[in-house]
Design a protein that fits this description.
Two copies of one chain form a homodimer.
Chain A: H1 13-17, H2 19-25, H3 38-43, E1 50-52, E2 58-63, E3 66-72, H4 78-89, E4 97-101, E5 106-110, E6 136-137, E7 143-145, E8 155-159, E9 162-167, E10 172-175, E11 181-184, E12 198-201, E13 214-221, H5 223-227, E14 246-253, E15 265-268, H6 273-283, E16 306-308
Antiparallel strand pairs in A: 1-15, 2-3, 2-14, 3-13, 4-5, 4-14, 5-12, 6-10, 7-8, 8-9, 9-10, 11-12, 11-13, 15-16
């Protein structure tokens, strides 16, 4: 630890980062006259403000240093998610590796073999070819729309906890590329991804990728295992030597594991009054440290609290 | 290396990332019918499109694994930059450490000593107390304004290569918090920073910090040395054990070093027609891979090319 003096400036981020554990144990705090702070809001959350991850939509990426938990979004990419479930069930990624780490952009994993003919078979139930799932009809999706302009899209907000955007003119919605968003690498052809090669955003949100590639979910816990991987020195951040690649111990679907091996995680719901209050407190911070409230929130500056499930 | 197939999707980022070396050696490329790509524009750049870093405004942060180059912005924070020059001249940071690494937020360095009375003396010419330099008058600054809405500020663009924002109502301008922006940690009091404790943004742009803290410059080269530092497990990402801290070998002002030890770097100018073309090509990508041009660019999605100076 170091002095409080020079650490306080950036203290606010603690509120959401530490929500993982802190929110679970907290007691309701007294609201400040100017509105509750992020931490106070989380501390006052009720069990109904949280939802458990669905084991059918959760995969565990096991690296040598630990587990990253990824929530899949079948409502946005049903075909890719079905394929990812099959690939995980088949143990497809076990023994493969993280092959790319490009600074301020993405970390990517899959089969490093260049020759398509020599790549690992996908196994039973997994398809080699899928349709592109860049966007879908907005009908049937409930979005908590953020109050500020997005710039990249006409509207932006959260759908079932995923950062998303939509266009009322075309009636379509899509998962947005924010820090932690997971997508399926593709070649020049729009329909050339099948979910076997995945990437995660580790830098400034590359929103220009939106609607150009299939996004399949987001990392809910363990981003710090992926974001610190040494950057590759080859083109696009690919590792030049096989020995530089980070081995994937396994990727498993939570539903395929016995309950004792599953992460007991809850994530904050995004369709509640509490979440709306959190958005407002993030638009205009109430912590005393802030002298100039922003009066604005960007989709990718709204990370979602995660916590261990009680009991 | 891995297959082109699944790597192509994110290939565009190469254009700017690889500009470091590639742009120097290139020959002008034929413009495509729909406009030149990012790489083609850079390849066609002339020597006058680049500027050399000023050694009086450049510091080298030497870590055990290499050097990060930081460009200082005296036009935004003259008092802090003067202090940082004095601190570097005094060898103040030599033997101190990186004490904090918080995922998707900041990496921070300085004196880890909690007790202010026991901290390392700043040395001759360095002041313990400075005024806050959160923003300055816009008069005298030439901004290349980006065409799209920013959200966080009325206008955003580049001033002398630094991402910046301004407000015509108040007539003030400030350096924006983007990936790589360097700022001076402070306590609760606005004027409690002196530049001895510095942080760099390693994640999604925390623009809510704008005008709440003094920003002093940006990392021009070597971000990947800082962004991969293991995240601290203490509050705010501070390392809990002293052994986890990354030692700072030295921080030196380029002007204090013999010419042979200085990095020969040039950065792309942001006040040229070439830069305007680059902005437009980034708003609407011309690479064949893109099916849906964004029609938008965000200030922090516009990284600046850097290259080794020829000759």
């Amino acid at each position: 630890m170091t002095s409080i003096a020079r650490t306080a400036p950036l203290a606010l981020s603690l509120a959401l980062a530490a929500a993982t554990a802190a929110a679970a144990a907290a007691t309701p705090a007294k609201p400040a006259a100017k509105g509750r702070t992020l931490q106070q809001i989380l501390d006052a959350s009720q069990p109904s403000d949280w939802r458990a991850l669905d084991p059918r939509n959760t995969i565990y990426l096991e690296l040598e240093r630990g587990r990253a938990v990824i929530e899949l979004a079948p409502q946005f990419a049903p075909e890719h998610v079905a394929n990812i479930r099959a690939l995980a069930h088949n143990g497809y990624w076990n023994g493969l590796s993280v092959n790319r780490s490009q600074d301020n952009y993405v970390v990517q994993w899959g089969d490093p073999e260049e020759d398509a003919a020599k790549r690992k078979p996908l196994g039973p139930g997994a398809k080699d070819k899928l349709p592109a799932e860049f966007a879908r009809k907005s009908a049937g999706l409930k979005m908590t729309v953020l109050p500020d302009t997005d710039g990249w899209a006409k509207q932006a907000g959260f759908v079932d906890g995923f950062p998303a955007a939509r266009d009322s003119a075309t009636g379509s919605s899509w998962l947005a590329h924010c820090y932690g968003t997971v997508g399926a690498g593709r070649d020049m052809a729009a329909d050339s991804s099948n979910g076997s090669e995945l990437y995660v955003v580790i830098g400034q949100s590359p929103r220009h990728l939106d609607r150009n590639i299939t996004t399949v979910g987001r990392v809910v816990q363990g981003m710090e295992l992926l974001s610190v991987l040494p950057r590759g020195t080859g083109a696009l951040g690919f590792y030049e030597k096989p020995s530089e690649r980070a081995p994937i111990v396994s990727i498993a679907l939570a539903a395929d594991l016995p309950e004792a091996q599953r992460a007991k995680l809850e994530v904050l719901r995004t369709d509640t009054p509490l979440f709306a209050e959190l958005v407002e407190a993030r638009r205009n911070r109430r912590d005393d440290w802030y002298l100039q409230p922003a009066g604005h929130i960007n989709l990718c500056n709204m990370p979602l609290p995660v916590r261990e499930k009680k009991g």
